[in-house]
Amino acid sequence: MEIISSVNYSETMQKKVEPYLEKYRVIKYFERTKGEPICYERYAMPDAKACVIISHGFTENSDKYHEQAYYFLNEGYSVYIINHRGHGRSFRMTKDPSLVHIKDFNGLTEDFAFFAAKIVKEENSGLPCFVYAHSMGGGIAGTVMEDEPKLFDKAVLTSPMMSINLGKIPKWAAAAFVKTKIATGHGEDYIRGQQAFDGTRDFEHSMTSGMERYDYYFDRCLENEYMRTWGSSYVNSLEMSKLADHVSEVSRCRKVVTPTLLFSAGEDGAVTDIGQKIFADNAASVEFIIVPGVRHEIFTAADEIIGPYWDKIMKFFRE
Q1: CA 305 centroid distance within chain
Q2: Structure confidence at residue 209 (pLDDT)
């Protein structure tokens, strides 16, 4: 398939991709829990061959996945992109637009299961239902695949959060520190090393592999406050750790029957491949693919990397 070139990327997105998407884009909300609206984008393709649900990563939102939506629409698939609670235009537990503060990871997985079963599948009765999920979104999607093995027909998990990269810090030490901060009244504070969005670009320390795609998304963040989710609270950090542990439990992984492609980034600074391998080794049908030399966001890598990446995904969905 033809990908959007990194050369003149921003211009192509503004003049070609976004206007095309706008013809199909509808922003809607649902409430699984009263008073907690969850936002999503729907792109309904006439005579669609299947529907694809996109599950975004930590601090992201639906706008980051417009390139992916464009590719799937051109393949004849309807597309739905959820904004997970605490992100984008969805319900938040804090007034700080930069802070992700989620008190229970189960709310994320329950939202996603409800969204897939009660909205997407009911609107697309009889059509195959696929999921494309990144990072935290992969941990959420993987959990739902364990809880409801027949919900999705195929899945693509890209750098899924199934074990968190803590560097040289022992897991027990990190957990003890976070729990101490919560116990001493700092649960809603930014975790050490993170802060509110201040408009400063920092590609070098980002999880993005391609400067052009980084700049395009950062420009969008400057324009839209709802896109500026930038850091985690201590409470949220603990819940993300619980989610990663939960989805990579061997007994749970063995419940997965959905045919799956799992892409693992070779230079991932956000997650490790430990949980990913547990998931892949114990689920029924997972192809584990290492993409060497790229950061966490595989889909923002150089053209020569994401070209084959997307060819693999589209071939998998077509089969």
Answers
A1: 19
A2: 87
